[in-house]
User: Fold Oxygen-insensitive NADPH nitroreductase from Halomonas dongshanensis.
Amino acid sequence: MNDVIELLKAHRSIRKFSDQKIPHTLLLELIRAGQAAATSSHVQAYTVIHVVDPAKREKIAELAGGQGYVATSSDFLVFCADMKRPTDASERTGANVERGMTEQLLVATVDVALMAQNVAIAAESEGLGICYIGGIRNNPQAISELLALPEHVYPVFGMCLGYPDHSPEVKPRLPVEAILKQDVYSDDGEQVAAFDAAMRDYYQGRGSNNKTTDWSHNLTPLFDSKLRPHMRDFLIARGFKMK
Assistant:
């Protein structure tokens, strides 16, 4: 395989960073690489907040569930789905803009996810490590207030970036046969069972944080209770009415 494919397959989440700082010129190039991602109808429905204030980063680490690397990584970015900029631009042309559509929420969320993944790949190509921080959705209203986010903008996730200070193993993924279907959807119980066995071996044999579990059991906290039930009301209050 070529170097790009090998880089993609080598992704790990990095949670320990050295004191070395990312040059600002490099950070700007990473953002430009992010902007080159595919975007629905060229809407570019995203804004990235580069959080440099140490006090704000400490607060975000707390709000995200005590994830200290938010504060200790070289740089921390909050990726926001932004329908304010494109709808404001359209309105300035004289259009009768209809805000709050469900499709607008989907477009902005997909756009910012694609953009962030480009940033992640670009960062890893430069020897940096990254870690997505979905925990900012634990307290999205507090994060929004902290970052002065206006209506029609919401924080989707954060990203820690820095030079790695550890080298965790690459976590296995589901077999391609489980997720690649031909023509129609089909059951994949056998592949999942095999993957659970592979994950048990991975968790028991990795270099740190060993545990006895598997993929299916790790999903339990996500689905045996209502996960972040505040998100719907939060999004509606942000202007994403899901009409």
Observations:
- Strands lie at 46-51, 75-82, 129-133, 153-162.
- The two ends are 45 Å apart (CA to CA).
- Residues 3-168 form a domain with the NADH Oxidase fold (CATH 3.40.109.10).
